[in-house]
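Customer escalation, tier 2.

The customer says the design service returned an amino acid string that "doesn't look like it belongs to this structure." They asked us to rerun it and document both sides in this ticket. The original structure tokens are below, unchanged.
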């Protein structure tokens, strides 16, 4: 295949002059091209063949040891005006960023092959899909892109003669964090990434295009790009509902997206539409419609097992790229939380000998699988519907040991936006930095919102005004712990019990709730807990709203909101004031002294 699009060719020539590769390959997405890339990767060691009789088409990639997660401190939004990027983003002036990165790209592909990968985010037949072209010198990136996006001819056909595509430039550089930058230029619809081969930094269709640049485009064009799973649920009465859920990275989005109804809830069915990103648009019918722009799953491996996610376990038995897992002597992968017990001996994620006595983990905590969506046993027959699916309920969830009940419902859309805006979570291994620290993560989009978050909340409020039947909005927390530090809620398939309450609330408030200062919390009897071994005390703790803990939370919200200055919408400030008042009425003034934690 030769590229026909003149704008792509012009850009490729320009990048070729700057990076001086030995060779340029235009990717067509064919099987032959994939086979060739795999052969080359096996020869260079970029891939290691796994046991092909047990795991056909599966390979292991070991990354550079310091290149294992997104590096948020090296990620920039480069708008002309600093204020447009907001306090939620690192900012660099576009000219400075281009100058700095051009220095790093200069001759960076010398002796290497430059791959040109046209890709489509969204189904081929959808008018909402977007085209990008990624130029990269990483074969691993090409192989992952062909799983996570639709590459080659299909993207070129969608683009036609247009020059309206996202220019995504990626080079591994020398992989040094000292010379690593992931720069977004929303005004030029361009991403420049150098110095990392890690998924979120290097597969530029995912976080860079489908979230950061798409959120910017969504603001301009009247839609939302969100860090959300999309799930279809059918009740025993035969009613199908679609739910989205925003959770920070590595908080169980993939598991929830592939939920298997527990045996004690007969008649329920669940299908996966997407596990990480949702593009949401108001439809002509006044509902909000969601589309998954990706075509694969880039999931966290540790903790994945037949108990936690049987659908994922089944889909990763073939045609899967494993990154940074451990390798057993029989050529199969292993990781912490695998169904099999720890092997007597293995090679760890860096290829070093490992035994159960080793001090370090065998697999990296952020090791990943990349698998095509069509391999997922629970994939929805509607996952590629051009117009998406209509959403009944939206969840905002995070990892919180204290304060936040298992589930509660917002009073209305505006209050729901406020619940999203006040989301905070204990940090995970998906980004570099300390794990387990509480950080604010509004809408689970803190690392992914491509513009000023104050304006982003304003945009959410505007979208709500266009919806005659907006989805109901809920806050969930699977991670509350008891006094012994153990999780109170069993999670995984049992989360369907919470979803059942959510759907009954969305469908005419059929389930019972108590009106509390933070929102509507389920009554004990309104939750279907049949067949679950949960003490009364645990249920009370799960549903408890402690005004003292919430008073602490409200105080820290104030400081956070203040950082957005005049960009903070009045409605969000009003919601904050009202919550503070309701909480204030529930606690004594003496309790309000000296507090500093987040919601
Ligand atoms: C991801 C992430 O890879 O959120 O999806 O880090
Ligand atoms: Mn994610």
């Amino acid at each position: 295949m030769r590229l026909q699009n003149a704008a792509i060719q012009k850009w490729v020539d320009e990048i070729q002059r700057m990076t001086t590769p030995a060779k340029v390959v235009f990717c067509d997405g064919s099987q032959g091209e994939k086979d060739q890339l795999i052969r080359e990767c096996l020869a260079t060691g970029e891939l290691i063949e796994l046991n092909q009789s047990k795991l056909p088409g599966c390979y292991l990639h070991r990354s550079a040891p310091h290149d294992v997660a997104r590096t948020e401190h090296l990620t920039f939004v480069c708008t002309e005006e600093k204020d447009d990027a907001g306090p939620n983003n690192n900012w660099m002036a576009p000219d400075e960023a281009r100058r700095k990165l051009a220095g790093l790209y200069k001759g960076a592909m010398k002796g290497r092959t430059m791959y040109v990968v046209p890709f489509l985010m969204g189904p081929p037949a959808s008018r909402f899909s977007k085209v990008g072209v990624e130029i990269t010198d990483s074969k691993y990136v090409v192989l992952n892109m062909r799983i996570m996006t639709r590459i080659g001819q299909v993207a070129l056909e969608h683009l036609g003669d247009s020059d309206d595509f996202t220019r995504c430039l990626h080079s591994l550089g020398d992989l040094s964090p000292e010379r690593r930058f992931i720069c977004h230029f929303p005004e030029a619809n361009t991403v420049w990434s150098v110095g990392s081969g890690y998924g979120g930094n290097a597969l530029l269709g995912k976080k860079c295009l489908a979230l950061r640049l798409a959120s910017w485009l969504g603001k301009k064009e009247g839609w939302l790009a969100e860090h959300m799973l999309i799930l279809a649920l059918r009740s025993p009465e035969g009613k199908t509902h679609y739910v989205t859920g925003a959770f920070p990275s590595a908080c169980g989005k993939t598991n929830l997206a592939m939920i298997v109804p527990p045996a004690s809830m007969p008649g329920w069915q669940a299908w996966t539409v997407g596990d990480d990103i949702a593009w949401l648009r108001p439809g002509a019918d006044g509902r909000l419609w969601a589309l998954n722009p990706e075509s694969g799953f880039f999931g966290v491996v540790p903790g994945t097992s037949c108990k936690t996610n049987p659908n994922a376990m089944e889909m990763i038995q073939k045609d899967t790229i494993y990154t940074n897992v451990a390798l057993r002597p029989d050529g199969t992968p292993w990781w912490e939380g695998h169904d099999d017990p720890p092997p007597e001996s293995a090679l760890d994620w860096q290829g070093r000998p490992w035994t159960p006595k080793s001090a370090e983990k065998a697999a990296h905590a952020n090791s990943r699988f990349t698998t095509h969506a069509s391999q997922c046993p629970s994939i929805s027959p509607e996952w590629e519907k051009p117009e998406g699916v209509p959403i009944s309920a939206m969840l905002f969830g995070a990892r919180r040991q204290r304060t936040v009940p298992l589930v509660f419902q917002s009073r209305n859309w505006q209050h729901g936006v406020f619940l999203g805006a006040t989301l905070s979570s204990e940090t995970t291994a998906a980004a570099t930095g300390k794990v387990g620290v509480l950080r604010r993560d509004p809408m689970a989009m803190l690392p992914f919102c491509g513009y000023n978050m104050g304006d982003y909340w304003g945009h959410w409020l505007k979208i709500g005004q266009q919806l005659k039947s907006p989805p109901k909005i809920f806050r969930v927390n699977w991670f509350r712990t008891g006094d012994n530090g153990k999780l109170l809620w069993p999670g995984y398939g049992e989360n369907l019990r919470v979803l059942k309450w959510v759907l009954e609330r969305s469908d005419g408030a059929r389930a019972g709730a108590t009106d509390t200062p933070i929102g509507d919390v389920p009554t004990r009897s309104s939750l279907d807990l049949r067949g679950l071994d949960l003490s009364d005390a645990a249920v009370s703790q799960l549903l408890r709203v402690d005004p003292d803990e919430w008073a602490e939370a409200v105080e820290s919200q104030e400081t956070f909101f203040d950082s957005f200055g005049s960009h903070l919408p009045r409605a969000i400030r009003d919601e904050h004031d009202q919550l503070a008042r309701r909480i204030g009425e529930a606690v004594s003034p003496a309790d309000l002294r000296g507090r500093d934690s987040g919601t």
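Tier 2 assessment: The sequence is consistent with the input. The radius of gyration is 24 Å. DSSP finds 16 helices and 32 strands in the chain. Sent an explanation to the customer and offered a walkthrough call.
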